[in-house]
Protein 1
Amino acid sequence: MATTMLHKHRVSVLFSFGRSLYRRINVSQGEFGLQQKCSAYSRPINTLSASEAVAEIKNMPDESRPMPAKKPISKAMKAYLLQAKNYDEFMKKQNTEFQIGRRHLANIMSMDADTMTQEDIDQAIEFLFPSGLYEPRARPMMKSPELIFPPKKAAEFDESGRPYHSLFYTMNPNFYGLLQEAVTEYVNLNKEEDNMIRKRISFNSDMKIILSGSDWLSQEKLSNLLIEQIDDAQYEQFKNVMLRLAEHPLSNKVKDFIMKYRYSLVNEAALAEIPKPSYEKDGRAYVTFKGARRKNAYADVTVHMPGTGKFLINDCDIEYFQDIQSREQVIC
Amino acid sequence: MSGMSSLTKLISTLARVSDTKLVLLNHSNVQIISSAKMSQYPKYFIDPTFRNDELNAMYETGEVKEKALVPCRAALTEHTSSEFYSSFTRKFINHVMRKGNKQLAREIVEKAFEVIKKTQIQKFHSLPPEKKVDFAIRDPHELFHQAIINVKPIMVLTPIKRGGVRYQVPVPVDDVQATILAYKWFIEASKDKERTVRFYNKLAKEIMDAANNTGRVVKKKLDLHKQCEANRAYAHYRWN
């Protein structure tokens, strides 16, 4: 196999590190030297695959042209990386302290440390450190450090300064990423809508999300969720974009995405407390609710099902109330 | 009639620059928020629907699904789905009430309505048979509603201080405020009577007169409008 004469040759090779980068490498001239060095390589470089070419050039000892020295990390970068490291260490320490404290508290209150919930901890602290302060946030509290200390983003760029998030240079990558996601969902919904129209499938109101009973997260809560400062204009933009998405006739398909940024106005716990009926001898079901209150009035109410329409108030009929308005309240 | 035209001119200029509130009711995604200002409830709590016909309408249009999980204020004890319920009258009863005696206030107003009905029936039977066909015995609630419409002022005089002097400046008045004024005038007029005359009798008379656009209370409104017209030179003091 004849050794190829590599003359003054300019080789362009495609590298790919995450993002595509083009590098032009000037292979040195001097055939003889090259011949010696490249004796092992009998094929011309332009027929090699990219990865093979990369391996070649990496392994090629090119003493005549020194490799560019590794860029030193700037001081700002160093400081940033140090800050991120310190924060991680700090949180770790706080976490261990919290866990130890939990065990101590369980010991004091003779509770089981493993099954102790945050509610139990709050109750215990309220018992041990009673406070007369009005502001709940000023009272003594013992919570997991993630809840107390404001969350910080993990390192946003690597050692060479290249950011991980594609929208990093918007300064609010999470926020604009969220908006982009919303728009992507909207485009997908539009495509689905087109498909449905083509197939002549009818639309019904069940396909649209119902936003009543919930409201958008406040500006503050959204900022905490995205770990970025959201200003008024951005918040308005967020609401407009999400509302536009929610008003799409097929918005129920992206319900999970939308409800992430909404909080419920309803006290769901109260809804779940439905009392179970007891049964009388003749099989009629009844429910007794004790402690129905209005101002200083107090009532125990028993409702039978199936009912006769008759009622007794303290063993009297409607005549128990002399005022017409009170009587109307009972019937209507 | 020239007085009327200048009055209408005044009204139109005021209306053009008035700052009346627009309450937008949007049924799509915005919830109907109650407008009570000093309320124990947060703003997003909606008013309750307690009338059967409104409730049925909500089921038909499907509005129930939207409103089902929205937190709701408690209904007042006056809010009933009774046949005898009238939202106008219940507000008026509240204004008539003194010292929290709702029972008495309601009795008075209902007696007044009874008197209205009786006088109408008397009038009807005293008419010759040809005229009986044209005469319509109207529901006292309906008559009262008409009376309120006739008595409500469009603008009132407010004292505004300019340069150390208080001027009586004509100013457009809110619908709710106008209704409250009308209630107040009715009660004042009914109180101004001889010792032996009963309040409910006087009130009945005033309501019937006002429904016909005559009588004391309507005169009071017209006098106020005349004064507003007379003071129209000061109208610009409203905005300095």
Protein 2
Amino acid sequence: MHKLSRSNRDKVQQFVAITGASEKNALQTLKASDWQLEAAFDVFYSQPQPRSNADVRRLEELYNRYKGNTQDTSFFLLLNWNIYSDMILADGVSVLCSDLQVEPQDIVTLVLSWHMNAATACEFSREEFVGGLQALGVDSIKKLQEKLSFMRSELKDEQKFHEIYNFAFGWAKEKGQKSLALDTAIGMWQLLFAEREWPLLNHWCDFLQDRHNKAISKDTWEQLLEFARAVDPSLSNYDAEGAWPYLIDEFVEYLYDKSVVEK
Amino acid sequence: SLSFKMERKTIDLDQGWDYMQTGITKLKRILEGLPEPQFDSEQYMMLYTTIYNMCTQKPPHDYSQQLYDKYREAFEEYIHSTVLPALREKHDEYMLRELVKRWSNHKVMVRWLSRFFYYLDRYFIARRSLPPLNEVGLTCFRDLVYNELHSKVKDAVIALVDKEREGEQIDRALLKNVLDIYVEIGMGQMERYEEDFESFMLLDSASYYSRKASSWIQEDSCPDYMLKSEECLKKERERVAHYLHSSSEPKLVEKVQHELLVVYANQLLEKEHSGCRALLRDDKVDDLSRMYRLYHKIVKGLEPVANIFKQHVTAEGNALVQQAEDTATNHAANTASVQEQVLIRKVIELHDKYMVYVVECFQNHTLFHKALKEAFEIFCNKTVAGSSSAELLATFCDNILKKGGSEKLSDEAIEDTLEKVVKLLAYISDKDLFAEFYRKKLARRLLFDRSANDDHERSILTKLKQQCGGQFTSKMEGMVTDLTLARENQNSFEEYLGNNPAANPGIDLTVTVLTTGFWPSYKSFDINLPAEMVKCVEVFKGFYETKTKHRKLTWIYSLGTCHLNGKFDTKPIELVVSTYQAAVLLLFNTTDKLSYTDILTQLNLSHEDLVRLLHSLSCARYKILLKEPSTKTVSQSDSFEFNSKFTDRMRRIKIPLPPVDERKKVVEDVDKDRRYAIDAAIVRIMKSRKVLGHQQLVSECVEQLSRMFKPDIKAIKKRMEDLITRDYLERDKENPNMFRYLA
């Protein structure tokens, strides 16, 4: 490290902070990219993440901590079915969040759940928890905490945001339901679009509460992102003959009706 | 004169030519009409032989080339000295006559000279690949006479043509002869005729008719203009037949048509008081036929006419609909429904009227069939006073087919009307809605024995089947069959009762067993039947189980009828009521007075139903029950008593229940069926295509379903979304406008 120039040293530090990679990895990647930070990021993100330092045993211990102590009677009473279903539930999750020093409604929990490929919000199975943290290359709360800024940065990546957004549907909906309850959907949209501005968000939410008042289908959820991305807020490039879900067609009519947009 | 010698002495060119010259001079004199006897065979032979000899002499006395040249020069000399001067001094018609004469003469001259010089044709011209004598002769005339005069001639001809157009008599034979020159001078090609005459004639004709058209279009009415045009075209065709070359006909006709009918098409058809619209309005079939004849031959000429026709029929149809709508809003409910029936009648008449137009005036042309169809599709799908056209049509049928319906017609007239109604159905997009209304009304007719004539019932079903396919009518046919079977069944039931007197319920019972799938769905409440009726149900069940154990009977009491003997003070009267009404009345056999609540509890009905029943028995025309208080409507605090003082002059009275509005349920049922139909269509299409773009999927879906209804895009999108949720379809990852079938 001491052989490096000051600017290159800075770059290594930056790289580690943002990607969470090891110093050794950072050095290698930056050298290979001719000390161009942007290029180094590209290379790094296109590689599969190494499953290096995470010690599976330590992860199992961590899991059990959040799953709850089966000898503890109060836990047993509260979450008595916990022993039979091997899951970290709402209580465990809120402990996890406070350990990480994040609010439970912080969007980073969604990103974390995405890494775990969690089936439902506020629940982690053993596999999901252990597998997710392994994939992130962490095995302790401290290391996980260090990864938070990296996880937040993933939301800025176009492709990853798309995946996380689509993942959010399945994650946020009730188990056994095919559609997402309207209130939950609106909450999720507000959370997600805080990360990337969409000028029509409020109108969309108003419209849904005003005119729709029913659950949101997966197709509508997914296509909405496409709509937010591709269609200009003035609707100048909106194709009425296109394959947009009918709810989005109705939204466009609503915008014209309420003179939000000129026809 | 010369004498013929046997020995061949060498003929010198000058000598020989001098001799030939005498022959030529003789010929000229004959042509000029001077007194000159015809050639005799000896003279002819001499001339021929002279040429022969001069050509077969040994060199240097073989004079073929020189003779060939002199042959041509003979013509040239004659033309320059005599023919051209004669022509140049004349003009107009006189010039034409002279030309015809000179041409005729020339042809004679060519014929004779080429016979004299024939030997040249045999060997010399072939050996040297030279034009034959005939051609040389004609070419001389062409190059010297024709080329100088053809333009003047053309002008003179055209002037005469225009004179004839203005109505003056001209010498047609002369013109024919002149124009024959143009044709013949082309020597097998039509070029001279076409370039030197025809093209100018066409231009002149165009400008002639352009002038005429521009003044006629201002002064004349549309029919008059068309008459004139027709006449002009006829005359021009005659002109061709008489003196123009036949190949000019299509070109000339096209020009005339263009100036008279194409250039002013819009002005003509749209003439305010006499144009196409006015003609349709005033039923001017002859003028319209003429219009068709004239515009039929013009490329795309009929399109504006068909368009005006379509607009006219649409306007008439819309007016009828509006009339019915207005009457409905201004009048009471009864007259409104009569008006609606009148509307259907009028629409049928409108269709008949304009179909005649299509067949006769417009010669069955597809454009007009299409215009008529599109016009009807527009106004036949409008709503009148809240009723869809599908419902109106079903009600109309019901009126014809039921007993005591508003239409009193002969059997033939009924058949005819039914035929026409089925044809109208083709224009209605919501055919499935019609089917459902029809089915509901058919059910009522069948179940309450209100069908006037079985044959008519079957006949319309056959017609509907033909037009809309077997699936359309299968349920209805099932219903009609059920009734026939029900009668047989009733006979068996009566036999069974005869054989099992203990089972007899003591009441005359008739049961109609229906096949569930065929009939409209009916709600059925678990009303607490009076004991007598309960026994009836048991008895029939017993009988039915002897026939089949595999079927379940569901009783629809709401459709039953009951005949009760009312023992009133004055006289007994038979009451014909529904089963529900009977159940209410029979309660008063055991108790004199009952409160609303009593009745409700005892019968186990809904408020809505009970209010309706009690109203019909206590607040309507026949007050079988006395209501306390005697207000006009039934409320839950009322009480009821049997009205023993009730009487009527009739011995039997029917106490009707007000009809329930079936419209809402029909529309709901049809909407539900449509959702399934759209789903099925989408799945069918995607299963076969595997991957398909959104727009194509939608348009194929619409097409597949068009036989029964017109699905709207929103409905299709909703179903697609549902199918995506149910994992039948997915969007393509790369292109969200494409859909993929998930097996």
